[in-house]
Amino acid sequence: MHLAMDLHSHSGYAGGVGSMSFEDIERNMPCKGISVVGTGDCLHPLWRKTLENTLRDCGTGLYEYREGSPLSYLLQTEIIFTADIGARRKGVHVVLFFPSFEAIDAVTDLFSRWGVKNTVGRPFVTCADPQEVGERIAAMYAADDGIEVVPAHVMTPEGVFGSKAPVDTLSGFFGEAAERMPIIETGLSADPLVLSLVPELDGRTFISNSDAHSAALHRMGREFTSVTCPRSYDAILSALRHNRVDATGEFHPSEGRYFLTGHRASRAGHDGRSCVYGPGRAPSDRRCPICGKQLTIGVLERALDLSRIQGDERAMEDMRAVTPFYHMVPLVEVIARARGIASCSSAKVLLAYHAITSVVPECALWGLSSGRIASRLAGVADENVVRAIIDVREGRFSFEPPGYDGEYGELSIGDARDCRDICICH
Ligand SMILES: [Zn+2]
Ligand SMILES: [Zn+2]
């Protein structure tokens, strides 16, 4: 069975904007073609109770909201490990998958033994050092071998390779547990090409998830992972642990907020001026020419640095994706852009969206050839929209400027732009 999955979500208990409604998820995910979603925040006592009272146990390690729904739920949360790295404190996000509510209980018991406050959607597990992080991950695996621990959005500032109190290897933060972690989440700021620069990740499974805080059509399912296996927790986990992923759907990393190196205009001392650099283009001391502070190193530059530090120097020309993947833009955004409509949740956009996804679900759309897209959507969507979808499918889109230092780029459809040589300071 072909399953498109989005296994990292958040409930309303995780802070931030939005809240998760099962009715919205049930309505929107079938249009997307997503068949398994992560519940988010399943260790939070109130959300856990909601899940237990609302979802039906399918007896497969997965859960459903409505009998016969095309959508299954996988018990999932994100937690934050913190540990001292030298003189600094580092926090790293990881995603946890659970095969059952009993497995959740087992980890909840460990948390109370460790003094973890479980009152936020994304609890902090405070550790002394990487060795203790490793021991605690090992304890979770030992509590139930169906539990999986996945480093989340590894290249963002809150990911293991992020720029805050940097570590240069997985074991530099996860200790001995690094050996036991076969799955890596690419996150919005990286894709399998970028991660192929990091030698230590060779052979690990790359998965892509939305990290969504709402079930809106441009949030949940904006990234996904597809596998072919029976619809059960064990089968899904086995496919992920053994790198049997069919494909991932990825945000273009240049849209991620940390793709290139730079300083945004709103920083102190910048007076509305900004600077942004492709790899190797920043001043050699990597200090900002405007404020003099250390620049925020972008994901691409950081991945190249890691290849050198890990002793197997790679260049951008060496980027290779082992698993097929698609770069995509949420379809509602493509439609809005093609029709010149400002809001991607306007009635006109939604009408066009539902017409298209009644013919081919959104996730499947990005896997079709341009010719197939044109023939399937003939008479279903207007010409501008079809052309924009094909442009995105063929990579003719870019973000101006690409994301850097927490700023999103602005989508432009119709031409591709190589942003790797960018060097702007104004
Ligand atoms: Zn996170
Ligand atoms: Zn600056």
What is the gyration radius calculated from CA atoms? 21 Å
Topology, number of strands: 18
Number of helical elements: 13
**Mean pLDDT figure:** 93
Structural class: alpha/beta
Shape assignment: globular
Helix content: 25-40%
Given as residue ranges, the uncertain stretches (5+ residues, pLDDT < 50) are: none
SS strand fraction: 15-25%
CATH structural architecture of the largest domain: Alpha-Beta Barrel
Q: How many independent structural domains?
A: 2
Give the N-terminus to C-terminus distance in angstroms: 52 Å
Determine the oligomeric state from the structure: single chain
What summary fits the major beta sheet?
A: 9 strands, mixed
What binds here, in terms of ligands, is: zinc ion
Q: CATH top level of the largest domain? A: Alpha Beta
CATH topology of the largest domain: TIM Barrel
What's the name of the CATH homologous superfamily of the largest domain? Metal-dependent hydrolases
Short structural description:
The protein is an alpha/beta fold and 426 residues long. Helices cover 28% and strands 19% of the residues. It folds into 2 domains: 254 residues, Metal-dependent hydrolases (TIM Barrel, Alpha-Beta Barrel), CATH 3.20.20.140; 67 residues, no CATH class.
